[in-house]
Design goal:
about 300 residues; about 15% strand; TIM Barrel; alpha/beta; 6-stranded parallel sheet; about 40% helix
Length: about 300
């Protein structure tokens, strides 16, 4: 029946990217190589109508695609943008403002840096949460990988202050500094301004601290959303009208979050939930389809599946 619905109202498929670069370690599978990204963009350009996320979609009369990026990695500017401009593809970049111009990595990258890439570590890790003390062996690569997965779940569910406490504890245990890897850095302010200058680019909000909004109070959610909007408007000189929920699954935001976005003057908000957008769908829960590092044949098959999801 999906094909029949699509014939009566052409859907918009929104794609979600994070990074365009080559990485030796990518446990969250966030990166697409420049070669694969170029092939993907060429395929989209040749086969679909490409639309801006902040545009009026009411006149869309054939299957269309919107390209988006989350977080604000430097490679968005230095590797993705030239390819997007080469093919004239409009794209939206959602920026977590608290990390711009910082020397640190996002916490999930820091976990990778410490547990999966540091050669010498103590043989046990002790985690003190304030309520309990837990220990894990960390002698083998398999043990470190298991700890990486466990801490990823735990830290994702912490508010910013507690999250940083746990990361500081982990860095002290591993004897590493906050200084992040160049390969994983977030865009500088100059790079962000360069991104915003492109006529193809829309800049969107993605909170200040990239925290699950559903675990925060209404006041904290409001501050995370509106402060990121105000800062991006100051930096870019453009009004911010679109937003991306951090992590973006159904339990990462709430009806209260949606209402805050609406009252803040945002016109659309996107999630990380596969699917299509039709004119009758909620503009504050626009589905997005996550893209992995797929070579062109796989990307074509995935795109075909997106129209049936």
């Amino acid at each position: 029946m999906k094909w029949l619905v699509n014939r009566s109202n052409a859907p918009v498929i929104t794609l979600l990217y994070h990074r365009v670069t080559r990485l030796e370690s990518d446990p969250q599978q966030l990166s697409v190589t420049p070669e694969n990204f170029r092939a993907q963009m060429r395929y989209l350009k040749d086969n679909f109508l490409l639309v801006r996320l902040d545009a009026d979609w009411s006149g869309v009369d054939r299957p269309s695609v919107a390209v988006t990026f989350d977080d604000g990695y430097a490679d968005n500017v230095n590797e993705a943008l030239p390819i997007l401009e080469e093919y004239g593809i409009p794209s939206t970049f959602f920026i977590s403002t608290g990390f711009v111009d910082s020397h640190t990595e996002f916490w999930w990258d820091d976990l990778d840096r410490i547990l999966l890439n540091k050669v010498h570590l103590p043989v046990r890790y002790t985690l003190d949460t304030g309520n309990e003390v837990r220990e894990w062996p960390t002698k083998s690569a398999a043990e470190r990988a298991q700890l990486y997965r466990l801490l990823h779940v735990l830290i994702k569910n912490l508010p910013p202050e507690q999250r940083e406490q746990q990361m500081a504890q982990l860095r002290a245990w591993a004897d590493v500094t906050e200084q992040g890897r160049t390969s994983h850095r977030v865009a500088t302010l100059d790079e962000l301004k360069r991104l915003a200058q492109s006529e193809l680019v829309t800049i969107g909000g993605h909170t200040v601290t990239h925290t699950r909004l559903s675990i925060l109070s209404a006041d904290r959610q409001h501050e995370e959303i509106t402060a990121s909007m105000r800062q991006l408007e100051t930096w870019s000189g453009r009004q911010v009208t679109v937003f991306s929920y951090p992590f973006g699954s159904r339990d990462d935001f709430t009806p209260e979050t949606i209402e805050i976005c609406r009252q803040a003057g945002l016109l659309r908000a996107v999630a990380n939930i596969p699917g299509q957008y039709h004119r009758w769908n909620d503009p504050y829960q626009i589905p997005r389809n996550l893209v992995r590092n797929w070579e062109l044949p796989m990307f074509r098959r995935k795109c075909a599946g997106f129209w049936l999801s």
